[in-house]
Design goal:
Four copies of one chain form a homotetramer.
Chain A: E1 5-9, H1 16-26, E2 31-35, H2 36-42, E3 54-56, E4 62-64, H3 66-84, E5 88-93, H4 99-108, E6 114-120, H5 123-133, H6 140-144, E7 156-159, H7 165-175
Parallel strand pairs in A: 1-5, 1-6, 2-5, 6-7
Antiparallel strand pairs in A: 3-4
């Protein structure tokens, strides 16, 4: 059965978005690319940094409230429905909840052919790339680099400190079930 | 039954996005806001201006191919699933296919409580706002202003040349079923 | 002597940028458009919300430090030099320092033909537009609407709550010395 | 005499912007960062892809007209004036005119202490990064990678395919005259 969903999990500034866009460029079929940034963009501005929403502390820490979790659950169900309706989807995610985050996606994607990809980048390299991006909030890259992979199971892992985004994408593309 | 989905339909530069963000700001519950721009953003860059994708002509005309339509159908199914999973959703759309576009959404949203809102803006005013936005492609505002409303049925219409975005949003909010 | 610089002064969300882009669209010659946002974008990320830099309080208040002022002075000198070198320049500014801000620009632009334009928008309308923009920080529009005009001398004033950006731009264009 | 201007020259997607932001992050003093993108952003939308303006061909080729050159000359004079007025400035440039482009900057910056830095990235790596950025126009990275360095004289060269942006920035910072 052909792969229907590619889930890329990695910390902030690990290089997921670049891989996602390269995958869209090299795969012969059109794939939709969505991710946690799409979700945050879709939420009310007031949900950022509010009680129950998602908070970004000055040190890069991220806290997630119950109202955020509720919208996120509906969002995940929607992305799964897109795949069931025939779209091939690349999901660009940050598993702040580690294995529990994966479990949430696994349940939603049940019955679909999913390729789970870990996008690794050493904390110090990711921190440098965060600086290179000029992000307003600093520290997310470093604090997320390791934890988001803990207890998460992958079909494939790539390390963006050792290969360009395009090379990582080609490695992932070669792994797709057809 | 409380309104679960608000569909805003209007041409480019008619002011839908501003109304959508104001609705998110004034409604007490958190609503997700998605739209055709979210979909285009999620598509491969190559789908823009390619055969089968979406094309933006120099005169502002937009053509949509079969591959775009297929991804769009899956996208619409996904947005409907988000609403069924409990998220309240504002959809910011341009019904290039007029009544046929509305029919596609109606089928996908069957069983959900939907408020259909027409966002009107006279062609010449929308054209001026397109200029004010500094868009790369000109002419979409004018060419879409009238056609996107033809044959479309609304619960409510607002005219952004006669009221600010916030006032339009408040008028829509007052109309929501609770 | 033909107008060489147009200075648009108004509070956040008063509509300066839209007018600036419309002016670029309707004026027969190519004009450069720069502004305080260009300057902030050019500064180190760390200058935002740091001692000596520019701070945006949660209530929309803006504080400006000595290091910001020093870079700003050099920036203003540079913009004046662009105009002296032959570029026609539209400056999109927020005179947080009121008459004192105007004095700084007047000194830098000495000898150049300048059109001073006040971009007015009632506080409550600007606040609604800030909401429509989905800005992260709220309150700037309201707190800046009146103060930025205090003691400032204009050749022309426009009110964006009573006219579209394009109409304001046409009114300004008609006032240019040739 | 302390370095007043750092000029980074390299092709599209070579990594100049990342280095520029890292320099702003690691240098103790606040430096302004401007570049050809700032200039293009400041120009009328109509100057992009028009006679006399700047044109981006479908194959990534860039053509520059006389009106663009005139505004660019004024822009360069303005950036030089910012440095003379005391701002330390990082310039992020693409020398499409090769040695002639450098000559234009050299004349404008006469008397200032300038560090000339070549930002190298092999054409195939830059092309992959262009894909990873999801740029609308493809081919610029590859077509510019080599030519922009021809006949240009540098104080220092870095290769972003062999070192992270931050490491390149640290190498440049170590070279600054104090």
């Amino acid at each position: 059965m052909a792969t229907q969903v590619i889930v890329l999990n990695g910390g902030s500034s690990s290089g997921k978005s670049g891989i996602s866009r390269c995958l869209q460029g090299v795969l012969p079929e059109p794939w939709l690319a969505v991710g946690v940034d799409t979700l945050i963009e879709a939420m009310p501005a007031s949900m950022r940094e509010s009680d129950g929403g998602i908070g970004f502390a000055a040190d890069g820490g991220v806290s997630v409230g119950t109202r955020f979790r509720a919208l996120e659950a509906a969002w995940i169900a929607g992305v799964a429905a897109m795949a069931r309706a025939g779209a091939q989807v690349i999901v660009d995610e940050v598993f702040l909840g580690r294995a529990e985050s994966q479990r949430r996606w696994e349940q939603a994607l049940a019955g679909l052919e999913v390729l789970w990809v870990g996008v690794r980048c050493p904390a110090e390299v990711a921190a440098g790339r965060e600086l290179a991006r000029g992000d307003r909030i600093r520290g997310m890259a470093e604090s997320q680099a390791e934890p988001v992979h803990q207890g998460v199971r992958y079909d494939l892992e790539v390390d963006t400190s050792r290969a360009e985004s395009l090379d990582c994408a080609l490695k992932i593309a070669a792994q797709l079930a057809r």
